[in-house]
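Inputs:
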Amino acid sequence: AQKITQTQPGMFVQEKEAVTLDCTYDTSDQSYGLFWYKQPSSGEMIFLIYQGSYDEQNATEGRYSLNFQKARKSANLVISASQLGDSAMYFCAMSGVNTGGFKTIFGAGTRLFVKA
Amino acid sequence: NAGVTQTPKFQVLKTGQSMTLQCAQDMNHNSMYWYRQDPGMGLRLIYYSASEGTTDKGEVPNGYNVSRLNKREFSLRLESAAPSQTSVYFCASSESVPGDTQYFGPGTRLTVL
């Protein structure tokens, strides 16, 4: 069965420092996508970054990068130069299509606190 | 360009009442989705529509029905609401096929008493 595990319920980081949010996944699909979303206290879901299972390069989007290690089935999010506005819940997700149809699975999330 | 819009933003129902949550997107996306988010948890897929005219069950479809009214609109109906359906409901859309990046609406906070 597909599964996403985020082992850090909460993380603290000092403003301007980098932080890594962990995500491991389990799937038997050959083709899948990995995503990170940010959910601020206002509640909306904001797309941050995407990594395809066949992409050899790690995805980057501004201050966000995805450390993709396929053999270890991990897709960690790295936020560089943290800002106070980065304080939020962060969700790792995986989507794929196989003979069983479309599936998308979200992890339970990591709450990030950025300290001034 | 509003992206994904949802109505209503908040709703309180009594057990057994019915209601329809509306979702529309203006990004010309083919695929649309409905999720629920319970407190302290990630999102769970209720139903999705890969393209206009098709709908399929997700992880937690029981107690819900959907309609893909046209390419823009995808509604979620609760026929007989139960307290277990108290949740925040998100609609999302993606460009061409399921698996593409999904863009989310602002959510509907539903309370069933």
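The mean pLDDT of chain B is 93. Flag for discussion at group meeting.
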